[in-house]
Amino acid sequence: MKKKIISSMLMVCILLGILPNTMYAATNNTAKPSAGWHYLRIMWNYLNVDKDGNIELRNKTNTKEGNTKFRIHDCGNGDYEFELEDGRYLGLEITQEEMAKNPDKLNELRVKAVKKDAKKYMTVWNVYSENNYDLFNLRPRMNKDYVVNASGEKKEDGTAIIVWKHADPWICAANPTPDAPHHAEIRFIPILPAVFSVRYNNTPYRDKPDGKILGEFGSGQKVWVTRIDGNWATIKYKDKEYSMWAPKLTGVDPTVTAPIVLKSMPSKDSYKVGETFDIKGLNVVNITDGKETTVNSDLKYYMQEVVYSKDGSYKLKDPVEIKPGYKFNNKLEASIEIKYQGVSLQFYSIEIIK
To answer: Judging by DSSP bridges, how do beta strands 343-353 and 270-272 pair with one another?
Structure first.
């Protein structure tokens, strides 16, 4: 992204002829890509896969096949993977070890759809924000000097997507995020509808874009996003439609808890011997289509008894499934795990006393 404001020091460099008049400079942007499924786009054309597994620019928007979908996996520590629907990953035909020993091999290397095999391929990328919202540049893991880009600065169908040497000399402690030229800026377009999470407290929602503020959401509130136009998102919440500032939202990984929201926990966590397991107060809802549908009947509960040793340490027994109405016959302490369709939603502790 071109720097809108150039420091006086950089301006002096330009006047002295040390730097070109068109330049790119590091930033302190911190935005991260949303989880879930996305289309990836460079200069208004889409990243797709050819018959040989090469990544290229090709607009398949109005075709039966459609554009390639990429599911973003946050691996932690700034590392990301991009999974295709067929199970392959966005990667390079080089290993992490080879890349570290001889980074020059990266220059002009084709980006491909490859199997996840660390002994053959590199599939982990560092992602850097260009606009603190939805525009990013991709660089091979732990190598900021090479960036994914459209070959030849072209945007026509069939343009090869390659890794190209582009070191940002302006990276420093204050601006640690490398910038990239236009043909290396990748827009992440979420595939809608999908569940998103509100990023900040006191985030307003409106009757229409720039319209009347009707209320506010807190951080972590889940909403059903049906459309994004520029910086405005159309959401459905409790079966009503509103507008929100899209940069205030982040996508939720559909394989984790979305579109399931745990709204309240069981009120009872202490029992006497002879009493039965009670989930009164628990409320778990599915918010697909912006409606709240209770799914308590689809939940499962697993108990792990706590066993203490003489030295004060403890361990957990293997989990045992229990159901509401299960009778506690002995004094104990235990951890209860709540699951929905095999996905863990929450843990909480209980005790059974005499």
So the answer is: parallel
The per-residue b/e assignment along 207-226, b for 16 or more CB within 10 angstroms, e otherwise, is eeeeeeeeeebeeebbbbbe
Q: Name residue 49's amino acid.
A: V
Polymer length of the chain? 354
Regarding whether 169 and 125 lie in a shared domain, the answer is yes
Domain that holds residue 292: 260-353
Cα angle 121, 126, 127; round to 5: 130
* Percent helix, strand and coil across the chain, each to the nearest 5: 10, 45, 45
DSSP code, position 206: E
CA 313 to the chain's CA centroid: 37
> Over the stretch 114-167, which tens digit does the pLDDT of each residue have?
999 999 999 999 999 999 889 999 999 999 999 999 999 999 999 999 999 998
Q: In angstroms, rounded to a whole number, what is the distance separating the alpha carbons of residues 155 and 40?
A: 13
**DSSP letter at 312?**
S
Is the whole model's pTM more than 0.90, yes or no?
no
Residue 127 lies in a domain: yes
CATH at 205: 2.30.30.40
Are the CB atoms for 204 and 149 separated by under 8 Å? no
CA distance 81 to 262: 28
CA distance 83 to 308: 43
Q: Where are the alpha helices (DSSP H) in 67-219?
A: 96-101
Closest to 181 (Cα-Cα) out of 140, 150, 141, 143: 150
Count CB neighbours of 22 within 10 A.
8
Query: Is 21 domain-assigned?
Result: yes
The owner of tokens 């409320």 is 283
Amino acid at 91: G
Compute CA 38 distance to the chain's CA centroid, rounded to the nearest angstrom: 10
Domain check: are 19 and 51 in the same one? yes
Helix (H, G, I), strand (E, B) or coil at 294: strand
With residue 69 as reference, give the H or E element that holds it: none
Q: How many structural domains compose the chain?
A: 3
* CATH at 273: 2.60.40
